[in-house]
Amino acid sequence: MTQQHDGLLSQDQALPRPDLTPSDRLYWQEEGRCSQARAGWLHTRHGRVPTPTFMPVGTVGTVKGMTADAVRATGAGVVLGNTYHLMLRPGADRVQKLGGLHRMMDWPGPILTDSGGFQVMSLGPLRKMDEDGVTFRSHIDGSSHRLTPEISTDIQFKLDATISMAFDECPALPATKERLEESMERSMRWAARSREAFTPRPGYGQFGIVQGGTEQDLRARSVKALTEIGFEGYAIGGLAVGEGQELMFSTLDFTTPLLPQDKPRYLMGVGTPDDLLGSVMRGCDMFDCVMPSRAGRTARAYTDRGPLNLRNARFAEDTRPLTPHEDGPLARTSRAYLHHLFRANEMLGPMLLTWHNLAYYQRLMRRIRAAIMNGTLEALAEQLRADWAQGDWSPEEWPLPHYS
Amino acid sequence: MTQQHDGLLSQDQALPRPDLTPSDRLYWQEEGRCSQARAGWLHTRHGRVPTPTFMPVGTVGTVKGMTADAVRATGAGVVLGNTYHLMLRPGADRVQKLGGLHRMMDWPGPILTDSGGFQVMSLGPLRKMDEDGVTFRSHIDGSSHRLTPEISTDIQFKLDATISMAFDECPALPATKERLEESMERSMRWAARSREAFTPRPGYGQFGIVQGGTEQDLRARSVKALTEIGFEGYAIGGLAVGEGQELMFSTLDFTTPLLPQDKPRYLMGVGTPDDLLGSVMRGCDMFDCVMPSRAGRTARAYTDRGPLNLRNARFAEDTRPLTPHEDGPLARTSRAYLHHLFRANEMLGPMLLTWHNLAYYQRLMRRIRAAIMNGTLEALAEQLRADWAQGDWSPEEWPLPHYS
Predict the structure, then answer these.
(1) In chain B, what residues touch A68 (CB-CB under 8 Å)?
(2) ipTM of the complex model
């Protein structure tokens, strides 16, 4: 146990970390490959980030429950901001007056903003779509707002997003092929308008979003349309919306090979540790998901032995750290203390478990990246899946410290 | 502005900070004096702390919204735990099994625990008092519990409190003299029983609590009773319970001169920055209060220019830090961002403002201590009061950075 622990820690320390060396153009450089999986560096105006990378979600300009210092300490390279939330509060013009999102939230590294398309679609009856864009009511105060490809791109400019996303429509699955086709084609028209509205700046970029649901021919047509327009990177949208892991993976299987080899690929809204592993193995480089932070707030910890629910009574006197791989404040935090904090509804519980989960996701990405570089990704994947299935470390395997 | 800022920072850095050098007995050593005000060091098993000192409240084993690292970073030396809350959740036996409160909450420095007396008294109809102790119902699940001087002292032993408090009764003010006398005398009998039940250990100690409301003769009799028993320190209880600052100060004026010169004095549950200043000038060395942390959660910031409410719309585009004296994450946090976080109900707002308020209280204590050592406390007090009265820094005095 101790040997494995020490071994992993030193391996982690040798792995690349994001740095703030700014680049005068936004590009991705491949550094290694293992079957479909790619290791690389994403170079941006706000620093360079090793890929594959998981990007914590900072919806309204904060990763919930984390200081920017804490997010940095987990090893995160890029954080996300949400156009929809930020345009409502505090407003794009205000963010611009405050010096942009980087300065506002004390995150000098790269920031990717979504276009607002996905959030607006999920408003249901509160929104009305036409060929030009979407009119919707704020979930906060019911006020009326409008997003079009041009408006969304302008907002992302004002937010000072390192990476802007094209404005698109994301239909819920399952959907008829007709609906998927119509929606994909509109998204491609919107992608062209988004690109037109984008202001190129050194080290900044814009990604197009591949749509088409789980339909191979629609995905192929979407890729063709986007690559003809030309973006600094390509996102795969319209997945992780209820179709299940198998359909998601099979869609990736026929989509990623169509994408340019020299551009970064961002799988939107994914996912569990196992989703990330499988998607990296299918050629994706960038990920975002609220799962690790949201789970952290509800006492769920992701670990090498699968998820643990810290509210469970069996942790009440478990004096071990959450896992053998903790650092920072988690290294000195027992499972029993975390259990106590959640039982007592203390803020520190969500704070520490969000920290743990985000650090776990970053560590997972670093291990996957190292395995790609070493050509041992298949072996790591087998090991990870076996460990996840095995369940929590037993007291025999990893003894509890006893203090009395 | 900049000069004043730099000057204060370097002065701060030269001031003493708590350290973890353990002492084999618990004692207080005077280092300087300015009229009634005292500067000193409190030596304990868990390190030494410069006094006067403000002790953040960690009710159920966490200073709300703060990691232990963050509490340390503010310069805090001692933290508080609450016997009442901890006996209910997670329970004293469990805390002991987890290695004591220091280990459980990752606070290797000194911990002071209150005796539960004050909390139990405030339960009102949920509690029943007799000569031997108090029976009460838990505010969490209604279960029945009992506290006596012996039980409270035993719980504090199990929590591994560096400083235990004698179990006492604290009547609400105003109260008849008869009621105050009866209550004080019972508290003195309970103090003797608490002392009897206390297990002396190297570097640990127990404080008696002076009661007697605002009555001079009762306070004098209470001091006499406690000093005859003999404690490592003396607390002044029964104040800051609604009597107002004037009555509190006049009670201190006749109480502190009666206390031993060579023992630390702890004024319980106090208070505002102005309360702390006035109480140090009346000979008190130690303080605790939920005010800075609770205020932080409700958007209220204590500053050298008085309190600011960060929900106020005038902060929406104020790009300055909260004050010119911030360090840590607050140094890179604008008022506008704090305003946004509170408007959006984001956890990071309470987290950052609690941090600021606790750091402000620690900095205030360091400045007061330095002034005691330099014999300039009167001048500092005048300066502080004038600054507090002046109100927020104007944009003329301290210009806003403009980014667009």
Answers:
(1) 329, 332
(2) 0.96
